[in-house]
Amino acid sequence: MSDRYQRALGALYGLAIGDALGMPTQSLPRSVIVDRYGEQVTGFEPGPADHPLAAGLAAGSITDDTEQALVLAGLLVDGGDRSIDPLELANRLLAWEESMHKRGSLDLLGPSTRRALADLLAGTDVSESGRTGSTNGAAMRITPVGIVSPSGDLDRLVTTVVQASSVTHNTSIGLAGAAAVAGAVSAGVDGGSVAQAIEVGIAAAERASRHGHWVAGADVAERIRWAIEVARSVPPDGVIDVVYRLIGTSLATQESVPAAFAVLASYETDPWLACRVAASVGGDCDTIAAMTGAMAGACSGAAAFPASARTTVTGVNGLDLDSIAVSLLQLRDAGANEDHSTAGVQQPSGVRTAGRLLHSGNVVIDVVLEVDALPEPGDDVITDAALSTAGGGFNVMVAAARQGMPVTYLGAHGSGPFGQLARRALSSAGVSVSQLPRRELDTGIVLSLIDGSGERTFVTSRGAEATLRAADLQAVPVGADDVIYISGYSLLHEPNRAALSDWLVRLDDRVLVVFDPGPLVGDLPAAEVTQVLHRADWVTCNQRESGRLTGQQQPLAAGRDLLRRCPRGSVLIRLGADGCVLIQRGAEPIEVPAFTVAAVDMNGAGDAHTGTFIAALSRGEPAADGARLANAAAAFAVTVRGPATAPTGPQLRQFLADAGDQPGTSTLNAPVSMS
Prior knowledge:
The chain contains 27 helices and 14 strands. By secondary structure, it is an alpha/beta fold.
């Protein structure tokens, strides 16, 4: 069986197992759960005789969470595509509740769903019936949508989430919670790690929150981020308490969905334990455990749950999850084929398919203080000119993302306030994050003191970004069309060097690697630099850096030296106001002139150049054209004050249009010697 099938099946098993574990504990306070089952449930238990909803149910019985998810799965399969008729879903939910009545079940529709369906029966239009539904009823049943929807098309995923949810939960909060779970499940089925699934879930929640009727309440995406940080700030045995007392376990979407993500992040390597913990947090814990199990199962596969648990949950409830998983994956594939066939876009022969930028460097927080003069030892100065902003590798990622390139940050980051600031900046820039926050570590800072003469003094504090591990990188799937960016700053810290060294040798030969040595290249271990140069397809640096790297002060001489040290690579050397020079194997060097502008702030120009050049390479543009675009981006950047000033695609096109006679390229006289 394929890995993808195992993950889709894992999502369904995780949903049912988490739901069944939480069946006897749902609606109970934490203290009662501890008295009856201990600190956490150890397995399936029957419904207690005094339980208001689950009395008399056999151990392993599922509840309305899984039941409604299967209703939705049946509608998707019967429809034969990824679209959902909200009115047909309403009819099926009503029929399901009637069947539950006949079975004598007390676990029926939730408050938002019941109210919406009652309104429908009373004549309310389907577009208005869910306008007040902000509880978690949509999120609890959404797993099949995550299975049929590829994570690479979040707009389509969110559209399907809205179709599956709006009849009962057509609110900004209800839709955001459902999209978060669907996005995480989808990313898991696509092969993503728990960290990647969380980021996709957050991104889906942000998009879905712009749909439906606005209702007052905390932002679901931000609540998920916060809940994960809170849970990861305590020891594992404290997660249950912090979820119950602080994050919240009520029916409210903005409590239960973040609670599920917090448990998922805290026990990412053990889905069975994650489900048992979620089932022990009290409140609406059957739903929290169902959502946790679905997301964990999608990331780990069905085999991550004990065989006995899978057998119990299918046997007690008469479930055929295997065939449902197959049918939902067939819809996923059919929908993908339809999307591709109707796109009307054909890649020219020989052009590289655009992939992601995977940035392995370090994002830190720049704390910039402007003072008249540095204080004497033991003294103090006051300033009103202070700025805290994401820095380090952030600017290159922003530049590439603004050119439409998908970007993922591979580096480590912390769980404190600076880590939160870094993640918010990355999220605002459209950059996804592949790692979970480091426990008990914050992201590092660079304190920059600028005196009255403009002189800068730096103090750098290392943080979580200096703790990258080989396993962190190996958990990230790398496509043949992706571009890996390695900065000299990536090699500053010994753990990061070791992780990158192990990872580089495992990369597919088709993956493009770009190396930017940075200003501290002279301080880096020569062996690690040599290894990166050996694998690099492009080296991009400024003239000073190329001189430190090679000992050659003239760009052409430095370029020739770098070509000899890069058996598969080419070289771009930035020359500031003189543009840049391309030195490619088997060709004469090409000078690409700069654009003339009135510069006001040189900070970030090199990063704007590099990010734009990488985006152009990813699109398959010739290197000379990419360098011209990069020169234009750098010229634009220096006309704007601030660090991350790279242009967007439209801004770059307007800049070029306004430039009139655009600079061309010229071949330099000195050929590249390969001797």
